[in-house]
Amino acid sequence: MILRIAAGLDATYIHRMDRPRVVLAEDHAPIAEQLRKLLEPEFDVVAMVTDGHGLLQAEEDFRPDVIVTDIVMPGLDGIAATVALLARRPDTRVVLVTVHDDAELTERGYAAGALAHISKHSAGHELVPAVRAAMRGERYVSPGGRH
Q1: Per-residue confidence of the chain (147 residues) as pLDDT tens digits?
Q2: What is the pTM of this model?
Q3: In this structure, is residue 143 part of a structural domain?
Q4: For residue 15, is it within any domain?
Q5: Quick one: which of 80, 61, 77, 70 has its CA closest to 29?
Q6: Would 131 be classed as within a structural domain?
Q7: Count of domains in the chain?
Q8: Residue 60 is assigned to a structural domain of this protein
Q9: Of the candidates 104, 98, 117, which has an alpha carbon nearest to the alpha carbon of residue 31?
């Protein structure tokens, strides 16, 4: 389900063509809102979705520069959505966010083609640098070295 699209639900929201465009996938509304607030000073969050199926549709509709997605979501999870997105459009740039500190999950995310994997707990200082790196087509490695 798409929660917010460009000028859709927020009449004061103005899409700025000069800023990189991001689609955000997160199934918990308060966390989605926090992530959006972290991104919006520098990026244009063109859509917020709550599951992997919505993510696939939003990517097709908006062709964002970067996708920021939770890993664990209902229906299609973030890793499976990443695989599907990259099969469809190989230049898609994906940043995974999660509360899980699991090396196997991190490796699955990178194997799927994600350029970054960060903890939601460190998003305040890692999300923007991870998105910047993804935009350059570079892998972001968490300063803690675990992601």
Answers
A1: 444 444 333 333 445 568 999 999 999 999 999 999 999 999 999 999 999 999 999 999 999 999 999 999 999 999 999 999 999 999 999 999 998 878 888 899 999 999 999 999 999 999 999 999 999 999 998 876 544
A2: 0.87
A3: no
A4: no
A5: 70
A6: yes
A7: 1
A8: yes
A9: 98
